[in-house]
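[User] Could I get a sequence and structure tokens?

[Assistant]
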Amino acid sequence: MKTCLVVDDSSVIRKVARRILEEMNFSIEEAEDGKEALDRCLGSMPDAVLLDWNMPVMNGLDFLKELRGKPGGQKPIVVFCTTENNMSHITEAISAGANEYIMKPFDKEIIESKFAQTGLI
């Protein structure tokens, strides 16, 4: 079973993502900020990370840059999931190592589509 780390400061978003991803047969871990997510990845690298941009402690972009610099940090497929829809944000995320980008609100079809495009499913 593949693993996905859901990183978002909103417990509601984490809960919705968990429900969708569990239906897709992913094992889910959660983190509420980039620092907690980085700690979890260093303990056990997930197959995928569904990542929010705006969070306290460490935002999604800083997390991504740190992750990609760690041993094994190139492995996870990272999909940004955010309300930031400015093209410069999307470009910055992809340049930092994101594999895909989806907008909130999202549904199962959107996540399935992006995960299929990246080869996760």
Remarks:
- The chain has a mean pLDDT of 95.
